[in-house]
Fold this protein.
Amino acid sequence: MEEKALASDLDVINELVAGKKYRELRELLADMHPQDIPELMEQLDKKDIVLLFRLLPKEMASEVFVEMDSDEQKILVEAFTEHELKEVFDELYLDDTVDIIEEMPANVVKRILKISDPETRKLINEVLKYPDDSAGSIMTVEYVRLQPEMTVSDAFTQIRRVGIDKETIYTCYVTNRDKTLVGIVTAKDLMLSDTDKTIGEIMEEEPIYVDTLDDKEDVAALFNKYNYLAIPVVDKEKRLVGIVTVDDAIDVMQEEATEDIEKMAAIMPTDKPYLKTGIFETWRKRIPWLLLLMVSATVTGNIISSFETALASSVVLTAFIPMLMDTGGNAGGQASVTIIRALSLGDVSFKNIFTVIWKEIRVAVMCGVSLAVANFVKILLVDNALFGHGVTVAQALVVCITLVATVTIAKLVGCTLPMLAKKIGFDPAVMASPFITTIVDAISLLIYFGFATTLLGI
Amino acid sequence: MEEKALASDLDVINELVAGKKYRELRELLADMHPQDIPELMEQLDKKDIVLLFRLLPKEMASEVFVEMDSDEQKILVEAFTEHELKEVFDELYLDDTVDIIEEMPANVVKRILKISDPETRKLINEVLKYPDDSAGSIMTVEYVRLQPEMTVSDAFTQIRRVGIDKETIYTCYVTNRDKTLVGIVTAKDLMLSDTDKTIGEIMEEEPIYVDTLDDKEDVAALFNKYNYLAIPVVDKEKRLVGIVTVDDAIDVMQEEATEDIEKMAAIMPTDKPYLKTGIFETWRKRIPWLLLLMVSATVTGNIISSFETALASSVVLTAFIPMLMDTGGNAGGQASVTIIRALSLGDVSFKNIFTVIWKEIRVAVMCGVSLAVANFVKILLVDNALFGHGVTVAQALVVCITLVATVTIAKLVGCTLPMLAKKIGFDPAVMASPFITTIVDAISLLIYFGFATTLLGI
C-alpha cells in the first residue's frame, strides 16, 4: 500500500517537474513527511534532486537531508553554495554531521568544516577520533544539562531556553561544577513535581552510564534491557561528554543483526544497502570465504581418494555421501546458529558451556536416532523396493549408524566452536554453518568409511 | 565486568538469605536497578525467589515482576495472596499484563482477571482478541489524550493529573469528541510553546498511525524509519484505541531478527531463550527440516547411482563431489541470505527482481571464474604434485567448468527463490542456505556428470 502511494507521488512529481510547476511542487513537498522524500528523490535525475531539494521549505531541508543516502547527499553538497551548505548543516545534530562527514570525500569535508563555527568544528574533530564501534562514535553532544541546586522551575526555564536545539529534552542530565555526572531527571519527573523542589531532591542518583570507548553493541543492548530513551556517555574521569539516543541504538541493533546474518552466510559484512553495493564490492565481500572453504574441502576430497579402492568395490556407498554431508551440515548449522544468536542476545555465556553441551548431546541423539530410523525405512521402501538399488541391510545399517554419529558430532562441534571463539575474543558469528559444514564433512566421511571398512569388511 | 558484578551480588544475597539478615537484604535490593534483579532471582531456589520478592520495596515490585521470565512469574503468582496479586497487577501497564496473561495457565489467568477492576478486565479481553502478530497485540492503552480546543496550560494540568499512570507522556494524542485521531503534540512542543496557545494551533496534523490489525513487524519498521518514540493505533473508523511505544518496537525487531536467523538455519522459530527451552521442544523445532532435507537428498543419491558405472571407471571424479556441493551451497547461501535480509529491511522488493538477477549473474561469474582458476592451480600444485592423485588436465577442466556453472546457478536460484516466495506470500527466510543447498546439490551433480560424460567420454 505504502509502496503504491510513493509510486503515484513519484508520477505527480515528475509531471510537475516536467511542467515546471514549482509552486505546486513546493506545496506538495511541504505536506509530505520529511522521511518519505529521500526515497522519492533517489528515483529522480541528478539535476532534479537538486531542484527538488531547493524547493523544500527551509525548516524541512535538513530533516530531509539527514535521511538521504550518502550518494544523494554528495550530489547535493557538491551543488550547494556556501550559504546553502551552512543553512543545512547548522540545523543538523552533531552525531548526524559526523556520520555524514565520514562518508564524504576530503574536499567536501573541508568545505563542511570551513562553514562550521569553531566550537562545532572542535566537537566534530573530537567525535571523529572515537573508534568506529565505540559509544563515542554514535553519541550526540546536544543534551540538556542541569545543576543539582536548580529548582524545578529553573529547570523549565533552562529547557525553554536551550531545548529547541537539543536532540532530546525528555531526559536531562545533572552534573556538578566539574561536569561529573551525578544524576538524571526525566521530563516526566519535572512535569509531575512541585516547581519549588530542587533538582538534587528529585533526580535519580547513580544512573546507568557508559564510557566513550564501550562497544556500541553493548550500549544498544542496555537500551533493550532498561527501556531507556537515552543513555549518558562519560569520559575516564566520569565527566559527561554526550548521550546516545534510542533511535541511534535501534540503528546499531539492526546493523548488528545484519552483520551477524552476513557472517553466518560466509559473507564479509558490508554497511551499504544491497542495491547500493557495486558488483566488485559484492564480489570482494563474498570471494574470500568461498575460496577458503573450497580449499579446505581438499581434505574431504583426500579422504574420499584414500578410500578409492573401497568405493570402487562398493559404489552404492557413494550415493549416500551427499545425504550424510548435507544432514551433518544442517544439524551442525542449527546448533551453531542457535548458540551464536543466544550469545549475541546475552541469553547464553561461556559459563553455560557444559549446560549447552549436555543439552546439545541429548537433542543430537534424539535427532540422530529419528533420522536413522526414517532413513532405514526409506532405504528399504524407496531405494530398494521402488528404485531397486539393492542396498544390503548391512550397508543400510552402516549408513544409519554413521547418521547418528555424524549428527551428534555436528551438533557438538556446532555448539562448542562459537562459545570457544567468543571466549578467546573472536567473533562467534563466523563459526556458523559454512565453517561447521567443512569440518563436519571431513569427520562424517571418516566415520562413514571407518564403519564401512570395519563392518562390511571392504 | 557486569557479569562478575552480578555473580558477587548473588554470593552476598545467598549469604544474607542463609543468615536470615532480611533488613540488610532489603536495603541491598532497594539500591539495585529493578532490571538487574530478575537475573539474580533466576539463580535462586524456588522458595528464596518468593522470599526475595516479598522483601522488595513496594514501588519496585511490579517493575521487577514485569522483567522476569514466565517460569519465575508463575512461581510468584502461585505463591501470592489475592492482596499481593492485586498490588502487583494494579501497577502494571495493560500491554504488560496481557503479555503475562498469555503465558499463564488458565487457573492463574482466572485469578488475575478476578482481581482486576471491570474496566481493566474489559480492556484485557479486548487486547487478547487481536492476532499475535498484529499492532493491537503489542499496543498499550495508557496514553495522554488531549482535545484541540484545550490551551497549552490546560494540557499541562491534564498531564499532571493523569500522567503518572501513563506509559509515555512525551507524545500526547489529540482527538475529537468522537475519539477520532486528529493530531499529536509532543511534550517538547508543549514545553517550548506559549501557555495560552491552543493544542489545535500547535499540534502536528495528519500524524503517521497504524491500524490495530497491521503486522507488528511493519509497525516496528516505522519506528526505524521515522525515529518516533510512540505510534498511535486506530480502529477501522480511525478512532484512537492505543499506542505502540518504542521499547515494544525494539522487542519486535529483535524477535524478528532471531526468527529470520532461525529459519535461515532450518529451525522452526521459538520465542523462548535457549536455556529455557526443553530438549523435547528443541528436538521438535529442529527435526522437521532435518527430515525433509534428508529425504530430499535422495534425489542427489539417485543421480550418483545412475552414474555408478561412470564413477567406477573414474573414481578420482568422486573426490571432487564434496567440494563442488559445498561451494555451490555456500555460493547460493550467500545470495539467498543477502536477499532475505534486504527484503526484511525493505532495501529490496519484488519490483527490483531483474536488477537483482542481473547483479547476481555478474557477481556469480566473477566468483565462479576466480574459484575455477584457484581450483585449477590447486589441482596441479597440490593434488597432483604434492599428493600424486594423477588428475588429468581434462578432468581438472571438467571440475573447473562445473564450478563456474554451479556457482552461477546457485546464486541465481539463491536470489530468485526468496523473492518469489515473498511475492506469493510465503516467508522468504525459509528459502535460505539449507533449502538452496539441497536444490543446488542436485543441479551441480547433473552438470558435473553431464560435462564428465560428454567431455571425458566415460
Summary: Strands of chain B lie at 143-146, 168-175, 181-186, 204-205, 210-211, 230-234, 240-245. The first strand of chain B starts at residue 143 and ends at 146. Chain B touches chain A through 112 residues (CB under 8 Å). The two ends of chain B are 64 Å apart (CA to CA).
